[in-house]
Specification:
The protein has about 200 residues and is mainly α. It has 5 helices and 4 strands; from the N terminus they run H-E-E-E-H-H-E-H-H. A two-stranded antiparallel sheet has the order 1-2. Strand 1 and strand 2 form a beta hairpin.
C-alpha cells in the first residue's frame, strides 16, 4: 500500500491508499528479492531524484514501510523472531525480555548495514540478527513501522496472561472470578470461554 502521510484529510480514506505490489506467493526473502527488484529500483530513483509534477516542481519522497513483524523482518534480512537477537531496531536479547529498568531505543541504522552487506571491501559485520542485506535499504531503519494491530494483539495477549497469573498467585482464580470474566467478555461481545486441562 502507498499513501501520502501528510495528506491529513484523506489519510484514513481507502480511496487514497494505493497498492504498489500484490504478491500471492510465500513470504521468503529470495523470492521477494526477485519479484520486488523493479519496485525497489523505482523507489530508489524516486527517493534520489524526487518526483517531477506537470508544473516542473520536484517533490522529495520520504518513504516509510509498515507491515507485520514477520514481513518486516524478511524485508530487512533479519533472523527469526525466536533468535537471541529478535528486535529489528535495538540490540536487546531474549534475556532482556521483561527487564523494565532498561530503556529501549533505536540503536541500529542503515549506515551500519550498508558496509556490512553492500561494500565488499569492508570487514564490518552487520548488527546482530541481520543475516541478509535489507531489500529496501533506501528507507531508513527508523522509518520501518510494525503494524499496530499485530502489536496490540501481542500486547493484549501478554497483559491478559499477566492478569491470569496474578489471579492465580493470589489464589483468586476461582469459579466466581471466571464468571465475572466471562460476563464482561459477553458484555463487550467477545466470544470467550475457559478450558480445563485434562490429564491423560
Amino acid at each position: 500500500m502507498c499513501v501520502i502521510l501528510n495528506d491529513i484529510m484523506n489519510i484514513q480514506k481507502s480511496n487514497y491508499h494505493h497498492t504498489i505490489i500484490l504478491y500471492p506467493g510465500i513470504e521468503k526473502y529470495e523470492i521477494l528479492q526477485e519479484v520486488m527488484t523493479p519496485m525497489i529500483n523505482e523507489l530508489n530513483d524516486l527517493v534520489i531524484n524526487g518526483l517531477k509534477d506537470s508544473t516542473g516542481k520536484i517533490w522529495k519522497i520520504k518513504p516509510y514501510f509498515s507491515s507485520d513483524w514477520k514481513f518486516l523482518s524478511i524485508i530487512l534480512g533479519f533472523n527469526a523472531s525466536n533468535a537471541n537477537y529478535f528486535c529489528l531496531w535495538c540490540l536487546c536479547t531474549k534475556k532482556d525480555i521483561g527487564n523494565k529498568n532498561k530503556v529501549y531505543t533505536i540503536e541500529k541504522n542503515m549506515n551500519q548495514l550498508d558496509p556490512a552487506f553492500f561494500n565488499h571491501h569492508s570487514s564490518e559485520k552487520p548488527p546482530p540478527g541481520h543475516i541478509k542485506p535489507p531489500l529496501l535499504k533506501i528507507i531508513p531503519l527508523d522509518y520501518y513501522i510494525a503494524d499496530e494491530l499485530h502489536i496490540m494483539l501481542r500486547i493484549w495477549d501478554q497483559l491478559w496472561l499477566l492478569v491470569l497469573q496474578e489471579l492465580k498467585m493470589q489464589n483468586r482464580f476461582n469459579d466466581s472470578i471466571r464468571a465475572v470474566i466471562i460476563t464482561e467478555m459477553r458484555r463487550i461481545s467477545v466470544t470467550f470461554q475457559f478450558w480445563q486441562d485434562q490429564e491423560t
